[in-house]
């Protein structure tokens, strides 16, 4: 539109046709940095077991927000109202096979 002052429009990178592949050396360097940060975080993290893991069961980690509960910024103390459909069924079916 000719009436729009382009100075007030933020820059937008058109990346649809942008074929970007990072150089292998740069990718390896970044991956090494990410792994080092992750290992540092893992080392510093303290895990408090509430219940000991059950022998022979794998751990299933579920995202509470929008997987088990539809929180979406809702402020409610009624967990049943926030619980997504079939949450209880999912947990009951998974529990015999997984620690959750």
TrEMBL record:
Pfam assignment, any one: NIF
GO biological process: regulation of proteasome assembly
Residues annotated as domain FCP1 homology: 53-100
Listed name of the protein: FCP1 homology domain-containing protein
Native species: Reticulomyxa filosa
